[in-house]
Amino acid sequence: MFDAEEQSKQALWCFEMRDRDHPEVRLGRELQLNIVELRKADRLGQLPERLSAWIAYFEHWREDTTMSTHTYAPVQRAIEKLRALSADEEARYWAEAREKALRDEATLLLEAREEGEQIGLQKGRQEAAHEMARNLIKLGLLNDVQIAQITGLSLVQVEAVRASRTP
């Protein structure tokens, strides 16, 4: 953050509100801006142990081996809370994935059933048309063209029905 040579060895900064004309007059300790350059502080390692533990947490929270060496209780509690939240997130992810898979399976089954019903209806209509053609042929009153027009079958199909009836 601060690049000047004399500032390269400092990672913790405390800025206070002061009067420009009278720098000895400050607004009070209540209004301060504390800045911690995390990477620099981690690299320099010159801060109090508690602050170093928090910096390590923010910089290395994904690294179990690094985080297991810190014994500062509030940081350990934060690590445990983060692990619990991560586990909950993972559990939620897998639960949502399972729900999605079940919905997808149900959708596929429904589509397959509807497709099967359509195929069944189509076959039923074809069988009914063939049955009607057989009955009309049995009556002997119509020619194959007329039977094809009535049943919706093609002339070739009517001829096939007639041929299948002949011994």
Structure explained in plain terms:
The chain is mostly helical and 167 residues long. It has one domain (48-165). Helix content is 65%, strand content 6%. The protein has six helices and two strands, in the order ββαααααα. It has helices spanning 38-44, 49-60, 64-67, 73-139, 144-151, 155-165; strands at 12-16, 32-36. The protein has a two-stranded antiparallel sheet. Helix 4 (73-139) runs antiparallel to helix 5 (144-151) and helix 4 packs across helix 6 (155-165). The longest helix has 67 residues, at 73-139. It is rod-shaped. The N and C termini lie far apart (100 Å). The model has no long low-confidence stretch (mean pLDDT 86).
Defining key terms:
single chain, 167 residues, mainly alpha, 65% helix, rod-shaped, RpnA, Rpn family recombination-promoting nuclease/putative transposase
Helix content: 55-70%
- Count of DSSP helices? 6
Question: How would you state the average pLDDT, rounded?
Answer: 86
Q: How much of the sequence is in beta strands? A: 5-15%
- What coarse outline follows from CA principal-axis ratios? rod-shaped
Which secondary-structure class do the elements indicate?
mainly alpha
How would you spell out the order of helices and strands?
EEHHHHHH
Measured distance between first and last alpha carbons: 100 Å
Number of domains: 1
Protein name: Rpn family recombination-promoting nuclease/putative transposase
